[in-house]
Amino acid sequence: MNKVFLLIGGNMGNRLQNLHQAVSLLSAACGPVIQQSAVYETAAWGKTDQAAFMNQALLLTTSLSARELITTILSVEEKMGRRRLERFGPRLIDIDIIFYNDDIIDEPNLTVPHPELQNRRFVLEPLNEIAPSFVHPVLHKTVAELLLECKDELEVKKVQSSKF
Description:
By secondary structure, the chain is α+β, with helices and mostly antiparallel strands. The chain contains four helices and eight strands; from the N terminus they run βαβββαβββααβ. The strands form two sheets. Strands 1, 2, 3, 4, 5 and 8 form a six-stranded antiparallel β-sheet that branches. A two-stranded antiparallel sheet has the order 6-7.
């Protein structure tokens, strides 16, 4: 089984309900979610004139290949009503593969580890909660080390504890 870290988030509609729905759909379509972080709220990153996001890190196990997984994730996003209208724009749900095992993948529409994770506190805070000692396969630093070095100053505020 493959171990996959995902970040889910969104800033439209009932944000918390959308995260719960994403976890359910991902578990059914991809494999069991075996760990999840607390839910965190963060101001929008990239395009700042929009509502705050809620984000959560997940660890799931899957028999899907990385390519099959991204296809399934995009299908889950679409099923939840995601429309890709503008880069960094508002969205009901966003699901990103952060790590897929310790694989390094650079293919069209699939880059793993996520190429910007070390620059985004809203990714690192929840990820650090469930995987502080996981070593980034390219940067050779733990998630905890990446969080300590992160220059992103956006506040990341815990709003709901983990269910695990």
